[in-house]
Amino acid sequence: MRVLMPRLRNGLAALCLALLPLAAPAQPRDSGPPDSPILTLDSERLITESAAGQAIDRDLADKSAALAAENRRIEAELTAEERDLTERRASLTPEEFRAEATAFDEKVQTIRTEQDAKLRALQEEANEARRDIMRAADPVLVGLMQEAGAAIIMEKANVLASLQATDITDLAISRLDAAMSDPPGNSGGFDLGVPIPGRDAAQEATPPDPNPDPAPTAPPPDPTAVPAPQSDPAAPPAPQPGAPGRTDP
């Protein structure tokens, strides 16, 4: 049982470290982007240092900690069950013990598969949250390009050398935070599914309209439309087959 779910624990520990929120530096005064045909951006900083990114980090870290606690509880229960089976072995016939041991091993494998699936779902949620932030930042980046008269924004990590003046990361973070604190269309804007400081607090403080306008009826779907392909990030390798240790008769 000591090696029941080591890969789960290691994966959760790595995920917790990856989801730890970073302290956001003080944002400079918004003086606008530089006049440059090419701008650079550190997208990792945009994700991790924005208010939305830090809120998502906290949400995912809480879920990761809950899953880790659940795994520890399950491991303790299975360890006790295995110990009980071992202690009762002397009172069982070889056939009875073999049947119970086989059933226990199958139970362990089922639980391991279920917990691995939960971990993969949490990792996919983290990946999707990062994509959500970049989608929310797209209009902000387009606006900065238009202000600068730029034709392209390059990922800073892929640039061999550049002047610091072309880096718009701090400005993009500031603009993104402002856009998500005051989204257009009241309840519109960028809803990433987690509380965003400033935005959700203001929305909760606003009383609902007693006479709201009726929601428009959406047109029926076009049967000829082709759905857009969904990105499928690489999932972690499947768990290796094998059962926890037991003593055969």
Automatic annotation (TrEMBL):
InterPro entries: Chaperone_Skp, Skp_dom_sf. Residues 182-249 are annotated as: Disordered. Residues 1-26 form the signal peptide. Pfam families: OmpH. It comes from Pseudooceanicola batsensis (strain ATCC BAA-863 / DSM 15984 / KCTC 12145 / HTCC2597). Keywords: Signal. GO terms for molecular function: unfolded protein binding. It comes from the Bacteria. Coiled coil: none annotated. Residues 207-226 have a biased composition (Pro residues). This is Uncharacterized protein.
